[in-house]
Amino acid sequence: MTGQKVLPLVVRIERADPPERTDALEAAALAVLTLLNDPRALGDGEWAEAVRSWEDIGIRKVVRRARGAEWRRVLDLPGITVTCGTAEVRVHPPVPLDDWPKDLSRLQVSGTDLTDSAPPGPAREVTLWINPELEMSAGKAMAQAGHAAQLAWWGSDERARQAWRDRGLAAAVRTADPAGWAALTGSGLPVVRDAGFTEIEPGSCTVVADAPWLRHGGFRPAGSGPLRSS
Question: What are the extents of the domains in the chain?
Fold first, then answer.
């Protein structure tokens, strides 16, 4: 697709001390929300045109991993680093699909198979519910969590957004109860449907974004661009 852009997300995975899976998923969601709220991505900011063109064509995200010197080189590129618990994720402004910066393009997509050492805590006011019937690598699930966070942001009015900012843009990522998944996807809440580039079938429902105010509204209507994930 001519002019297509993707949003690079890089998760730090040191061989001796990898992050918890849920921390990585929540860090990805926070990274996306932080980018969307950064002055450089708004108005006449230096990243704003790239963000707008990325949103117009689709909101495809690609997660790669880095450690050691790779991670240090990533920190030298334009972007924002966020931390959630044990996880560090750096989000970069959108780049052309076929023209990544060298220090990002050389990073591996595979190898993001993370686990949790203990069950995650309870859901929060904003919770991104993962489809319990799908098997996704941590990298794939991170991209999907980022999509869901973005849909939740688009579906929030300014009052809800400000309250969310005041809470640090926190969002929990949890696996849904299998018995309740159908009800979630049919509730009118924002649903991420995967484009099918990697790992799962096209059209699969991957994540539902839930918050009290979203239950009384909806998400950005068709015309905002298709969801694209990798």
Answer: 5-101+121-216
